[in-house]
Amino acid sequence: MKVISLLYLFAAILWVRCDDKGDSEIISEEYVLELKEENFDSVIESNDIVFVEFYAEQCGVCQALAPEYAKAATILAEAGSSVKLAKVDAIVETALAGKYKVDGYPTILLFRKGTTPVSYERGRSANDIVGWLNKKSAPPAKQLQNMEEARTSIDSNDIFAIGFFADQSTDDAKMFFRVADKIDDFTMGITSDRDTFKEHAAKNGDIVIFAKVSALLHLSKIVHCVLVLRQSNPI
User: Fold this and answer.
1) Which option is the CATH number for 33-137: 3.40.50.970, 3.40.30.10, 1.20.1530.20, 3.30.530.20?
2) Which of 63, 69, 149, 229 has its CA 20 to 30 Å from the CA of residue 160?
3) Rounded to two decimals, what is the model's pTM?
4) CA distances in angstroms from 104 to 56, 92, 110, 133, 181, listed in the order given
5) What is the pLDDT of residues 71-100, one digit of tens each?
6) Which region is the signal sequence (predicted)?
7) Rounded mean pLDDT of 138-150?
């Protein structure tokens, strides 16, 4: 009986230690951080990119998303990505839900340092989430140092856009980077290489979209790209 009593006591001590957590502690389950009002700002400020799902326990869509969300978090964590996935119980954390104007579930926002949160409106599979986050965590436009890099990028993508800027510190080049960051459907590149300019008969400030015949099935993506570019830099 004495041994059993000691075992009960030991179990009780372990339970207290495991359960005695501060309100602001970050609970990580399958690489997904559970955020509260007390720790939300510190997590956002201490990470370059945080992907946050505002959910409701009784929401069927949220329940269906949960395993894919956890899978995406696992894929990114095991790949060594610095992107963090997190979730907030919007029914409990009403102040956070109100602050970020959450009026439906799930609401998913991307937080990046120094920028306004961006709403995620794309696919809900783990691969969809990982692909989008990988693009958002990479430079908006791929640096093309020479003709070979440009050719490889064009050949390996159904749709690929290149911005030709001799000086990438200009306002026009900076605008191109901002536009590239808004386009999620395909990759964009930027070059200052003179030989690449010549190969494509490009002038400084030109933006050229390269599309394979197969990409015509996704003509709406190309049209969207052109519209975004025109709106950002009207003629």
Assistant:
1) 3.40.30.10
2) 69
3) 0.71
4) 9, 14, 16, 22, 26
5) 999 999 999 999 999 999 999 999 999 999
6) 1-18
7) 95
